[in-house]
């Protein structure tokens, strides 16, 4: 006999018990249901009818009081509306006599209603208010009380019957519950006893196979399952034995190579001085090297949320890089040293780690994880800080003598210290322009130094958008007129004011407008557009110049970068400083450009809806 047949046979006692239990339940529940239905059919309709009759009698009595109070039309309408439904409900009660004494009570109600109706008709014949009041209290009100009492007696009779039948039904339900409990226990005991016996006999070979599987899971590749027979479990045992034998052969031939390859790969990543982490698609820690264990204090055998033990700032960076890689956006490359995160790794001081990420692909080519490398840029960052300090110091030292030089050239050019020739004036004019250009470079260097040292303080306040744009255009209007470039502006009506640091925004807008004028040929145009973009305000500076090649667009915001063919006179810091100021406001700055079709520099600033 096959295992399938044995298991089906083992279910027969349980099926018989369930059939017996189901038949018992159907019979008893049907009996209880009929008893409950009789309560509804016999008494509930009478209760509902007498309640409605009482309500309609009370409304007719209210109508009589309206007539006495002088509102005769209202009373006549109300009493006329109550008579048809009252007759209908009385007919319902006459057709639903179910309890002893209910027929007599119903006849009394009918007689009382006929009397009350006649008294009400006589009451309506009285035109004099005093006579109507006298008849109401003398005959109509007593007739109303009599009819109401008759209806109440029928209501009480049916309610008492419902209570009595409910008690009977409750006792019957208790008997049914007892019977059902006994039936369930009997069926359960019968079914469990025979089913358990048959199942144990059928599944005894499964226990033998389970023990063999457990031993194999513990590493005993010599485990075998000895099961006699020709059923499915016996066949499964033979297949298991074959698998165990082949697994033992495979382990003997390949385990050493696998362990050696794993040891070599772990030694390779452990040799790297920078922390390396391998994260799964769900953020779980899959592997770490020795540097990560030392610097981040991570242990692969900690289990659970291992990254939860990392400093919150570092954990946020790791999660951002992992999301970028796992999201299918390719490898993650940092944009600069500003993305480095500080880790307190040793008593000598903190270390600055720059994150990089690359995807880990599965067998089907899908991204199943991410490898994160935290490059130690502590020395490079310190060199960068030293460079910034040097630049700031040189720029600061240049400012004083440069101011004196500008003043001296200005005084000489203006003839304050004596008349100058035309050639001398030309030379002085060129020298003054060079001094102004040098002053701009010094100012840019000082601004850059403040930003990179974290000393940039924003004085944010509400400013009219038109004033910001007009200030930027006014500063470049003379240059634009000399070059034959038209300046214009377009402001959205829903952006009247913005909350910004006006001095810093003047610098950003002035730089963008000035660049547009310098790169736009004669008869070209530079325009400033301001509009709302969701929770942000968007500024755009559009020009009709030569445009920017795609390969240059990603680098124009780098410090000291100057595009090939750019006009002389700057240090390549303007756009870098503008980007840092916008980011300090919580916004973004970018460019959209096509060679030969001009450029659009844009930046967004977060603003409240009412700004």
UniProtKB/TrEMBL annotation:
Pfam families: HAMP, HATPase_c, HisKA, PAS_4. Keywords: Kinase, Membrane, Phosphoprotein, Transferase, Transmembrane, Transmembrane helix, Two-component regulatory system. Its EC number is 2.7.13.3. Residues 393-609 form the Histidine kinase domain. It comes from the Bacteria. It catalyses: ATP + protein L-histidine = ADP + protein N-phospho-L-histidine. It is found in: Membrane. The chain crosses the membrane at residues 179-199. It is an enzyme of class 2 (transferase). Its main location: membrane. Residues 200-252 form the HAMP domain. This is histidine kinase. It comes from Corallococcus caeni.
């Amino acid at each position: 006999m096959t295992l399938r047949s044995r298991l089906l046979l083992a279910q027969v006692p349980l099926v018989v018990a369930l059939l017996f239990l189901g038949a018992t339940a159907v019979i008893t529940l049907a009996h209880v249901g009929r008893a409950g239905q009789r309560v509804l059919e016999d008494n509930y309709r009478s209760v509902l009818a007498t309640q409605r009759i009482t309500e309609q009698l009370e409304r007719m009595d209210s109508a009589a009081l309206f007539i006495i109070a002088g509102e005769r039309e209202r009373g006549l309408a109300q009493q006329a509306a109550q008579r048809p439904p009252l007759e209908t409900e009385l007919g319902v009660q006459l057709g639903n006599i179910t309890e002893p004494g209910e027929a007599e009570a119903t006849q009394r109600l009918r007689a009382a209603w006929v009397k009350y109706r006649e008294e009400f008709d006589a009451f309506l014949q009285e035109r004099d208010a005093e006579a109507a009041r006298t008849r109401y209290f003398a005959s109509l009100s007593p007739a109303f009380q009599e009819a109401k009492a008759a209806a109440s007696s029928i209501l009480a009779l049916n309610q008492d019957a419902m209570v009595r039948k409910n008690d009977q039904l409750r006792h019957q339900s208790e008997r049914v519950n007892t019977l059902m409990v006994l039936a369930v226990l009997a069926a359960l005991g019968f079914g469990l006893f025979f089913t358990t016996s048959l199942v144990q006999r059928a599944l005894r070979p499964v226990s033998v196979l389970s023990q063999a599987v457990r031993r194999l899971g513990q590493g005993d590749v010599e485990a075998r399952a000895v099961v006699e027979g020709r059923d499915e479990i016996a066949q499964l045992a033979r297949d298991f034995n074959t698998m165990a034998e082949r697994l033992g052969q495979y382990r003997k031939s390949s385990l050493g190579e696998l362990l050696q390859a794993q040891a070599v790969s772990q030694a390779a990543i452990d040799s790297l001085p920078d922390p390396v982490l391998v994260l799964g698609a769900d953020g779980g820690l899959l592997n770490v090297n020795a540097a990560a264990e030392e610097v981040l204090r991570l242990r692969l055998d900690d289990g659970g949320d291992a990254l939860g033990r990392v400093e919150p700032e570092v954990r946020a960076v790791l999660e951002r890089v992992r999301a970028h890689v796992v999201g299918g956006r390719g490898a993650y490359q940092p944009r600069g040293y500003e993305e480095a995160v500080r880790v307190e790794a040793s008593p000598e001081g903190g270390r600055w780690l720059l994150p990089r990420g690359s995807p880990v692909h599965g067998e089907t080519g899908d991204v199943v994880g991410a490898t994160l490398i935290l490059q130690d840029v502590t020395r490079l960052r310190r060199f960068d800080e030293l460079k910034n300090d040097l630049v700031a110091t040189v720029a600061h030292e240049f400012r004083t003598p440069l101011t004196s030089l500008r003043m001296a050239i200005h005084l000489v050019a203006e003839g304050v210290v004596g008349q100058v020739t035309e050639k001398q004036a030309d030379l002085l004019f060129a020298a003054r322009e060079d001094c102004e250009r040098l002053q701009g470079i010094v100012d840019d260097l000082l601004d850059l130094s403040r930003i990179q040292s974290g000393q940039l303080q924003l004085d944010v306040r509400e400013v009219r958008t038109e004033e910001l744009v007009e200030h930027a255009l006014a500063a470049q209007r003379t240059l634009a007129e000399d070059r034959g470039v038209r300046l214009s502006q377009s402001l959205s009506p829903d952006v009247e004011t913005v909350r910004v640091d006006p001095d810093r925004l003047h610098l950003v807008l002035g730089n963008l407008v000035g660049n547009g004028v310098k790169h736009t040929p004669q008869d070209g145009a530079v325009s400033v557009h301001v509009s709302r973009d969701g929770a942000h305000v968007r500024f755009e500076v559009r020009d009709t110049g030569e445009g920017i090649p795609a390969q240059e667009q990603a680098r124009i915001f780098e410090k000291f970068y100057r595009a090939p063919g750019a006009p002389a006179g700057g240090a390549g810091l303007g756009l870098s400083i503008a980007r840092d100021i916008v980011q300090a406001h919580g916004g973004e700055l970018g460019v959209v450009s096509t060679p030969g079709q001009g450029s659009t520099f844009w930046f967004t600033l977060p603003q409240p809806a009412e700004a």
